[in-house]
Write a structure and sequence with these properties.
By secondary structure, the protein is of the alpha/beta class. The chain has 12 helices and 12 strands. The chain starts with a helix and ends in a 14-residue tail after the last strand.
Length: 333
């Protein structure tokens, strides 16, 4: 920093102000200092700067490496945090890296609060984490003392999907579920509730699925078998968009036309759903609102003015695209 100060013709204290983005330097001075730093190949060591501070200003985020919707949430979190004085630290989990490992990394960086996207950790573990740090669970229920959760109304989203299909004339609808993924139980229950309400003479079918494209492809044979039976479903509501994308590919490969033979509705509205060739009607989870509320909960606890604890539910919306239409022959009894 002494070298940068000498090159830019300013004091070392002014260099510090520039690299901390603190007030006290003009725009021209900031440009001159950054240009001098670039010429010298200098960049500040943020980790070293944190060593002497009691607070780090870091919000740790654990997320699924292979989950497209988590990427949308992370992007929204970066937008929310910008200019707040806090910074986001990411730690991913996947088949080769556990959630525990991801969280241990965040704790090692001295993150002041933790935001867990769609965690599958036991309630006891979430409670233990919340005892030491503000903890916000996003896109899943918290279910543990001291844990705030921010999630879409899963049941309300399924109702939106079913009501859309009913408005098109569908009267026999199937559901491909999400297995043990976060939110799957609420969505499955909401579908079964709609089934009981609309078909008191017999439930609509539920086909085992899961959260990935592979799960959707694996669900296709069971769904296709239903289409060959009397009273076959004319539409299907799928746990999420990734599962729906795998299902769509398998259905079309088997000669099933979407939406002519079968309408399909997903859940999430992740970036995959609007890709040409997918063009999926889906339930949107509003990632910007989820991210904003999660940050509000985390920072509120850190700064002594927490938002209302417990389950913070965001209303979803329906996005209609090309995978739904009226059933062939009009309304189906």
């Amino acid at each position: 920093m002494e070298d940068v100060a000498a090159r830019a013709g300013v004091s070392r204290a002014l260099v510090s102000i520039v690299f901390r983005d603190a007030p006290g330097a003009s725009g021209a001075t900031r440009e001159r200092v950054r240009a001098a730093a670039a010429e010298l190949g200098f960049s500040p060591d943020h980790r070293a700067r944190l060593l002497g501070r009691s607070r780090t200003g870091l919000i740790g985020v654990s997320f699924g490496l292979r989950l497209t919707f988590h990427a949308d949430l992370v992007e929204a979190l970066y937008e929310v945090v910008r200019g707040s004085g806090y910074e986001v630290v990411l730690s991913g989990n996947g088949p080769g890296r556990t959630e525990e490992a991801a969280l241990e990394t965040l704790l090692g960086y001295r993150c002041e609060a933790l935001v867990c996207l769609g965690p599958t950790l036991p309630v006891e573990r979430l409670a233990a984490l919340a005892a030491g740090h503000p903890l916000v669970v996003v896109a899943a229920r918290g279910g543990a003392p001291g844990v705030s959760s921010v999630r879409a109304d899963d049941a309300g989203g399924v109702r939106l999907a079913v009501e859309h299909l009913l408005s098109l004339g569908h009267r026999r609808i199937a559901h491909v579920d999400g297995g043990r993924a976060p939110g799957a139980t609420d969505r499955r229950r909401a579908f079964r509730s709609a089934s009981t309400r609309e078909r008191p003479d017999g439930p609509w079918p539920v086909v085992p699925g899961g959260p990935t494209e592979v799960d959707g492809a694996r669900a296709a044979p069971a769904l296709l078998a239903l289409l060959d039976r009397p009273g076959a479903p004319t539409a299907v509501q799928v746990f999420n968009d990734r599962c729906a994308a795998g299902l769509l590919h398998a259905l079309r490969s088997a000669g099933c036309r979407v939406p002519e033979d079968l309408s399909v509705v997903g859940f999430d509205d992740d970036r995959l759903s609007s890709v040409p060739g997918v063009d999926l009607t889906t339930v949107r989870q509003e990632p910007a609102e989820l991210a904003s509320r999660a940050f509000e909960h985390a920072v509120g606890q850190l700064e002594g003015c927490p938002a209302s604890p417990g389950d913070d539910v965001v209303e979803p919306s329906l996005v209609v695209r090309g995978t739904t239409s009226s059933p062939r022959g009009g309304a189906t009894a």
